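User: Second chain of the day. Same drill as before.
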Amino acid sequence: MPAVVLAPRDLAGCEHRLALDFEHPVLVGDRRDAPGVLRRKEAAASLRSAVGELLRGIHSDHPETFVAISPDADAAARARATLDACAAGARWIWNATLPVDLEAGRRGHAELLIAHGDGYVPVIVVNHRVTQAAKTILSEEVRAPSLVTSPLWVWAPNPDPYRTGRPNRRDALRLAHLVAMLDELGLGSTADPQDAVGGVIGMDADCIVVHAVGRTLDDYGRVLERRKRIAAQAVPTVARRVGECRSCPWWGRCEPELVERRDVSLVASGNQWNALEDIGIQTIDQLAHYHGDAPDRWPGNVRFDDAIVNAIAWLTDTALVRRVDEPTVVRADVEVDVDMESFGEHGAYLWGTLLTDNTEPDVMVRYRPFVTWDPLPTTDEARSFAEFWSWLIGVREAAHGAGKTFAAYCYSEQAENRWLLASADRFAGSPGIPSRADVEAFIASPEWVDIYAAVGRNFICPNGKGLKRVAPVAGFAWRDDDAGGEASMEWYSAAVGLGPGPVDLTQRARLLEYNEDDVRATKVLREWITDRAANDVPHERELLAFRAGPDAASGPHVAESVEERTAAQEGERAE
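Assistant: Same format as last time:
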C-alpha cells in the first residue's frame, strides 16, 4: 500500500471525499475555497489568535512558562521548535506542530501543549461551542457531573457542575490522533495510553474541556487504518449524498453519478439509507415501490412513509406534499413577521419586521428594520435590539388594547430565540432591554409562531424545509438571485468595512432588501397555507397510491410523471 499520511481532518466526514482528495492531489492543491468555507476558516483563525493572545496575557508575568512557536515558519521548522521547547521543559507551548510520522501515517498540530505528568497534554481550539450551562446545579447527594473542565490559567481538571458537554466526534478523533503522536515521540503525559487525556477550548473560551482520550483510542485506531486504506485507493468508495455535500467541491462530480443510478441517498439521510440498505433498497425506484415494514434500524424520529413519499416525489417532480386535508396555521388580526440577521457569533445586527393589520386592509403593509451598522461586536447592538423589542411589544399592547388578536411570526425560531435571549442577557441593565423572564414568557406564548414548525406539521418537504425551498411553492421570489445566509455574511463584511476595502453602502441596501424579502416570504407562505395550499398541493395518499399501480394513482398523475421523468433522463444520457 502506498505511503499515506493523514491529518486529523481526514479522519471524519465523507469517505468518498477522502478518496477523491487523495486520488486527485493536483486538483485539491489548485482548488480555491468557496466564500463560505473561506469565511469559516477566517473565523476559526481569528478565534485561535484571540485565544493565543489571551493565554499569552495570562502568563505574561512568567514569560519562560509560555512559549509561542512562530506561525510564519514552515511546518518542519515549527516541528523542530516544538521539540526544542519540549526538551527545554516549557510548561505551555502555543501553536505546537509535531513531526510527520511517516511510518504510522500521521501529521498534526495542537494549538497548545501543556506539561503534565511524564509529558504533555494536547489542547485544541475549535470554532464551535463545546459546553452549555447546566440546567440544574447538582448537589453532593446527586451523582457527580460527567463533565470535567480546567481553568485557562492552569491545568487543574475537576468535575464541573455548572456546565454540560456538547460532544463532537471530530474533536475526539483529533485529540486521539495527537495523543498517539505524542506517545510515539515519548512525550505522552502518562505511561498507560488508556489514561491519556486532552483538552478543547471552544468559541466561548471560558474553560478547557477535558476529554478522556484513552477511551477513544481503540475506535481511533480502527478509523485511522480504514481511512489510510481508503486514501491509498485500497478500499473502494462510492458517492452518497450526506450533509457535507452542500459545501463539498466534489459535489459537481458526485451529483450526476447519484442521479444516474437514482441513488436512494438523494431522498434519504445517512442513517436512513444505511437502514434501507439492510433490506436491499439502494435506488429511489425501489423505495418508491416498497411495501412492507420499516427496516429494523430505521430512525424512530422519522415516519417511514415520509421516505417513500419523498422517493415518489423525486420521481414525479413534486415539490411539496400535504400531510393533512386542510393545512392550518395560527392567524391573528394584527400580524408581525420577524427575521433576524446575525454575523457569526458576534451578535445580531438587524431585526427586520413586517406589520400587517388584517382588520384594516387599506393600511399599507410596512417593513421596518431595526439595525446597527457599527461593526460587531458593538454596544450599539443594545440600542437597536431595545428599539426592536419596544416596538414589538408596543404593537402587541396596542392590538390588545383595541380588542384585536396578535401574533408574531418567524421562520425556524431557534435562531431568533437564541438571539432574543442572548441579547437580554448580554445587555441586561441597558436602556430598554427586557429581562430574560420577559423574553422567555414571550417565546413560550401562543403569540410567537414558528412557520417552519407549521410547515413540518402540514407538509412533507422533499426538497427540504428551508424558507427558500418552500416559499417559491407559494409563489414568492427573492429579488436577489444570490440571497442566502452564506452570501449575507460577505455582504455584511463589505457593509461595515471588515475587509481591506472601504465601507460599501450598496451592501447595506442589499442586506435590507434581503431581510425584507425574508419577512415578506414568511407572510406570503402563511397566507398561502391558509388560503390555497389545500388545492395547490397533493395529499400524501395520492402519492402513496402509486405503489398500487398506475390505475390507483390520482391527483398529480403520478405514474405518468414517472414515465415522463424517466424518458427525459434517458434522453439526457443519450445526448
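The longest helix spans residues 505-531.

User: Great, on to the next one.
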